[in-house]
Design brief:
13 strands; 2 domains; Alpha-Beta Plaits; four-stranded antiparallel beta sheet; homotetramer; 292 residues; Rossmann fold; 8 helices
Chain lengths: 292, 292, 292, 292
C-alpha cells in the first residue's frame, strides 16, 4: 500500500474495466511498455471467468508523464475500444480535492483532518461545511476553510442543498459525509456530479436508517459495526467500501454503543477515504472492487 | 472461565433475577454464607439502576452439597420471595444432556463432538439426530448414538417432528441445531420443553432466512458472520447468545463465503454451547445476559 | 462499563486484596450493607483457589458518602485486618489528575486530549509536558497547560527529570508517557511517587527496546501490536494493562508499519488510561488484574 | 482466492523472482501470451523499487498445457535469464503430497484431515507419522495411512529420524509438523529435501522454545497467538507464513490459554498449508511473501 500515500510525480494510475476476455492483462502491459512506462503494481479481478466483468488497476511510472499523457490516452482508446473496454487514467501527482460535510459529531471529521495533517491522506481539503458552528474553530485550527450552512426547517431542504452545491461546484472531486445527519436528496446527488461517501453507524444491511445503536441495543447483538459506502438514491443501500465491528456486551447501554462505535466509524471512514483517494475502489453496480 | 469446564463436585451455580433493588448482592452473599457455602465467583447485571431488572450468577462451593440442597432451596424461597426475585440453582457435578440435530453439513456437528471428546464441553451427548445418514459413521466413531429421522416431504413436518420428539422426550436438557436445515415448527418448540440453540450463518439481523451467503455476496458486504441464538417462534429473531465475523473481499464467491463462514459458525456455536452448558446465559425478553 | 465514565457523586470504589480465603465476598458485602451502601457492581478474582491471592473490586452507592467515609474506613480496618486483607477506597466523585509526557509524535497525545474533551475519560489533565514544542499549540487549544522541558544532552538526564518532577510534584495522580521517547531513570520513578503508564509500540515481550517496527519488519511478522504497561525499573518489562494487534503484509514498509501501528497505539493507550482512571486495574507482582 | 482450491486442469502457476528492474511485468505477460496462455491472476511485489528484489506469481490457463510445458520452459529460460530472474512453473492439475507429523495433540492434525476431506486443501495426504499411537484410529478413519515411529530415548534422535526419512523419501512434496513436539535436527532438515512447516504455539518472536503458554501466563500478556513458519536450523526462527491471536484475561490459567490457543493454532496452520499448497508463499531470506 505504499505507492500512493504521497502525491507521486510521473506516476499514473490506470483503471480498465469491461467484459472479461483473454489476453487483457498482457495487452495492457504491452501498451504501458511501448509508451515507456514501467509497471509498479498491478491488480485485477474477474467477476466470473465465463462471461463476467474484468477490472484492472495498474500503477506505472513514466518519465515526463505530463507531456506523454495525450499520446498514452490515444493509444488506450485505440487499443481498448475494439475489446469494448473502458478506462480512466489518473496522474498521481495531483491530489483529489475532498469536501467534508459534518454536523455536531466531531470524531470522524477531526480524524480525517488530523490524518490529512500527518500526511496519511493523499487529498487536499478545500472546505468543511457544517449545519452547526460547533466545529468551526477546530476545523480552522487545521488551516481548513469552514462554511456554515444551516439546515432548512421542514422536509424541503432545497435551499440549504443549493447553498452547499454552490460552495462545492467546481471545487471538489469527492464529498465525504462525516456523520452529516441530514438525508441527501436525489436532486442533490444528481447535481453534485462527484462521488459522495457516507459513514453509516451500523454493520449494513443491519439497522438501516435512523438510530442504529438504539436498534442494535434493542436486538441484543454482540457486535456493533460501521459501514462506509457510496451514497445512492436508496438510503443506506449504496455500494459498500469498507466495514468493521467491535465486540459489545449486555452491560453496555445504547449510549455506550455510540461511544464504542465512534472509534469504529472513524477507522472505517478513514480507510474508505484513503482507498477512494488512491483510486483503489471501483464501483460496479451495487458492489465495489477494492484493490487494497 | 475456569470454574466449570469440568463437572464440579459440591459446587452450585445459582441464578437470581427479578426487579432491581438495593441490597440484593449482600442478601444473596449472606444466604450462601449462612448455608456454609463459599462464593467462588459472582457476576451481576442491572438493566437499569432505576426500575430495571437485576441478574446475578453465583458459583459457590458447599461441602456435602447434595444433602444440603433442600434446606438451601428452602432458604432461597424464604429469603428471595419477599423481594419478588426468582432463582434457580444447579448442581455443577451434573452435566447437561445435549442432543444435536444435524443435516448434511458436518462442520458444526464434528466440532462439537470433537470438543466434547477433548473435555472442553461440560455436557453429555445422548444422541445425534439427522435427516441424512452421511454423518452416521463419524458420529458413532465418537461413541455417540446416531438416529436417522428422514425429513417429511411437503410443508407438513408433524410426523418427522413427532419422531424426533419421541427420541428426545425425557432424555435431554437442551437441543442444538448444528446447521439443521429444517424450519422448526412452533408446535415442536412447545412440545420439546427444553431450550433449543441454533447457529444461523449470518450476522443477524442481516440476512434473515435462507441462503445468507448468497445474499451477503449480492449486497457486497466486507465481513460475513454467524450468530448463535435461542430458537423462538419468529424465524431468526430469538435472543442472540454469540456472534462473530470474518473479513472477505470482492474476490470471493458465494461458495468461498460459505467455506470461510463455516469456520466462524463452528467457533460461534461452540462458545454458545459452552456458555449455555455452564449456565452463563440468562434469557430476558429477546436478549441474553452472558456472564462469560 | 457504564458506571464510571462520569464522576459519580456518592459512589465509592473499593479494592480489596490479600490471601484467598472462604467468605470474603460475603464479608465485604455485609460490611457495605451495614454501612448503608448499595452494591452497584462487584468483580472478584482468585489467582489460585488453593493458597492464592484474592482480588475484589466493588462499586457501591452510599448517600452522604463524604460524611460517612471515616466510619466506613474504620469498619474496613476492623473487619479486614484479621483476614490479612488490604484495601483502598476511592470516592468516585473525584477525578484522577493525569499528566501526559509527550515528544514529537502527536497521535497518542491528541487522542487522549480529544477523548477527554468528549467526556470519555474521567480524569482531569493539569498539564502536558514535552521535550519538543511542536505540539504546544494543539495542547493549549484544548485548554490544557503545556510545559516545555527540553531533554538534556548526553546520558545524564537528571536535570531535565528534576524539572519535570518539580512540575508534577503534588499536582498529579498518575503520569502517562504518550510516546515520550526518553528512557525514564529509576531515580525518577522513585521520586515521582505515582503510577506511570507507558505505551510501547510492539506486542510485548516481542521487540523490546528501540525501533520495534524496524525489528518487526526484519523478522517478517504478520501482525504488529502495541502494549500499554506500568513502567518499572526493567525497560518494557512492567505489568501489561492492555495489548492489541493489526494485520500487516509483506508489502508494507517499516514506515507503513509505523503508520498502521499508530492507530493501535492510541486505541490501546486510551483503554489502559480509562481502566486505570476507573480503578479497574490492580497490579500484582508483574501482572495486572483488569476488571473491564 | 478461488483459483486453486481444486486441482485445475490446463492451469499453471508461474513464480518469477530476481533483481527488480523495469518492464518485468510486461515481459512475463508477453511471454505467456505468445505461448497461448491467458492470465487469470497476477500478483507482484518489490522489496524496494531501487535495487530491491522482485517477486511475481502468475496463474494462467493454457489449453493442452502438458504438451506445451517444454516449450514454455524453454521460452522462460531464454527470456528471463538475461535479466537474472529465476522462475518455477507448477502444473496446477497436480496436487502437492503432504505428510503430517503429529504427536499426542490431535487438534491441528484432525483439522487438516477434516479440511482435506471437505475438499478445502488442494493436497494429497500419503501418510501421517506419529511418535504415539493415540491418533492412529482417527487418522485411518479418514482413509489416510498411519505410521508409528516412536521417539528415541535421549538426545540422539538419529534412528527415529532415519525411520521417518525412509518413509518420506520420494513420497512427499512438503511436511507439516502438526504440534509434533520433537525438535528436528539440522541433519533431518538437510536430508528431507522438501519444505517443512511448523506451527508454534505463540506469537513469535515472543515465547520461543518450550512451554509458551506457561511463559505467556507468567508475563501476563493480554493476547495469545500462534505462528506457522518454515522450519530452519534456528529453532522458531524460520520465515513466518501466518500468525493470529486471541484475547485472554487475568482469569485464565495456563491450561485455559492452551485450550483457547488450540483454536488459533489449527486456524493458522490450515491457512499456511493452503497457501503453501497453492504456491502463494515465496521464501526470501528469513521472510515470506504471501500472495493470499
Amino acid at each position: 500500500m505504499t505507492d500512493t500515500i504521497e502525491a507521486l510525480v510521473d506516476h499514473a494510475c490506470l483503471i480498465v474495466h469491461g467484459p472479461d476476455q483473454r489476453g487483457m492483462v498482457a495487452e495492457v502491459a504491452a501498451l504501458i511498455t511501448r509508451n515507456k512506462g514501467n509497471i509498479i503494481s498491478l491488480d485485477q479481478h474477474s467477476s466470473d471467468p465465463e462471461g463476467g466483468d474484468f477490472f484492472q488497476r495498474v500503477v506505472f511510472h513514466r518519465p515526463n508523464l505530463l507531456a506523454a499523457h495525450p499520446e498514452i490516452e490515444a493509444d488506450l482508446d485505440r487499443t481498448l475500444q475494439p475489446f469494448g473496454m473502458k478506462w480512466r487514467m489518473v496522474d498521481m501527482s495531483t491530489r483529489k480535492r475532498m469536501a467534508v460535510l459534518a454536523s455536531k459529531s466531531d470524531h470522524c471529521l477531526l480524524d480525517l483532518l488530523w490524518r490529512h495533517r500527518r500526511g496519511e491522506l493523499p487529498v487536499s481539503i478545500p472546505m468543511v461545511i457544517s449545519n452547526h458552528t460547533s466545529v468551526a474553530e477546530d476545523v480552522r485550527a487545521f488551516g481548513v476553510p469552514f462554511f456554515h450552512v444551516p439546515s432548512q426547517e421542514g422536509p424541503d431542504k432545497s435551499e440549504s442543498e443549493a447553498a452547499i452545491l454552490k460552495l462545492l461546484a467546481g471545487n471538489v472531486d469527492f464529498v465525504v459525509l462525516a456523520r452529516y445527519m441530514q438525508v441527501i436528496s436525489n436532486d442533490f446527488l444528481e447535481k453534485v456530479g462527484v462521488p459522495v461517501i457516507n459513514i453509516h453507524h451500523s454493520f449494513l444491511p443491519a439497522f438501516i436508517g435512523a438510530a442504529p445503536y438504539r436498534k442494535a441495543k434493542d436486538r441484543g447483538v454482540k457486535l456493533i459495526g460501521a459501514t462506509a459506502h457510496y451514497v445512492t438514491e436508496e438510503l443506506d443501500e449504496g455500494p459498500i467500501i469498507e466495514q468493521d465491528v467491535v465486540r459489545v456486551t449486555h452491560g453496555e447501554t445504547a449510549q455506550d454503543l455510540q461511544r464504542r462505535g465512534a472509534d469504529v466509524e472513524r477507522a472505517v471512514l478513514s480507510r474508505a477515504v484513503l482507498w477512494h483517494a488512491q483510486d483503489r475502489v471501483i464501483r460496479q453496480h451495487n458492489h465495489t472492487i477494492v484493490f487494497a
